[in-house]
Amino acid sequence: MPKILIIAGDATEDLEFFYPYQRMLEEGYETHVAAPSRKKLSFVTHDFVDGFDTYIERQGHSWPADLALADVEPTEYAALVLPGGRGPEYLRNDPDFRRVVTHFFDAAKPVAHICHAAIALAPLGVLKGRRTSAYPACAPDVEMAGGIFVDGAAVVDGNVVSARAWPDQPKWMRAFIGVLRKEAPAEG
To answer: Where does the DJ-1/PfpI domain lie (predicted)?
Structure first.
């Protein structure tokens, strides 16, 4: 059975973690969660309030990481999912995060990323020349990294599928599962 890796950390967006996690399981993929350390992660939820210029943040659910990023052997995984939230702000500084994520892009394996995950990808150089979506406030990060920002719900560029934020998840995951079924079909 192909394995999917989801990288998350504390302050990962709750909905952007659980929706793809459950969809991967539903599709029949063995799904592992990696984080800077093997521990119970604390997620957050972001929402929009009338009259407020940006989003608000509340405490979300918790979920255990299956393994630390240092222990990830990326060649064992068929695809990668990167949720957003505030987690990417610090994940991008982790050398093992950079090692693991770069493998997926170098090997042209399927990658799904959403929202603020783009700010963790930008310093890696993997967005250069690539059409990608992200939370619109991240557009400058995508463009400074040489990417082409697209304000869309399910932007497909080769094996990479991106989206703006959790309201896009049905279209985002539908497109990503289409790529997975072609590149790394689940068994059974």
So the answer is: 3-177
CA atoms of 79 and 5, how far apart (whole Å): 6
Domain CATH for 25: 3.40.50.880
Active-site option among 32, 46, 113, 116? 116
**How far is 39 from 41, CA to CA, in rounded Å?**
6
**At 1, is the pLDDT very low, low, confident or very high (cuts 50, 70, 90)?**
confident
* pLDDT tens column, 18-67: 999 999 999 999 999 999 999 999 999 988 889 888 887 889 999 999 99
- Give the largest CA-CA distance in the chain: 49
Q: Which pair of structure tokens corresponds to residue 159?
A: 């094996």
Clarify whether 116 is annotated catalytic: yes
- Ramachandran quadrant class, 138 (left: phi over 0; alpha: psi -120 to 50; beta: rest): alpha
pLDDT at 133: 98
CB neighbours of residue 108 within 10 Å: 11
pLDDT tens digits, residue range 9-24? Answer: 999 999 999 999 999 9
Domain that holds residue 178: 3-183
User: Phi, psi at residue 135, to the nearest 5°?
Assistant: -55, 130
Total of domains in the chain: 1
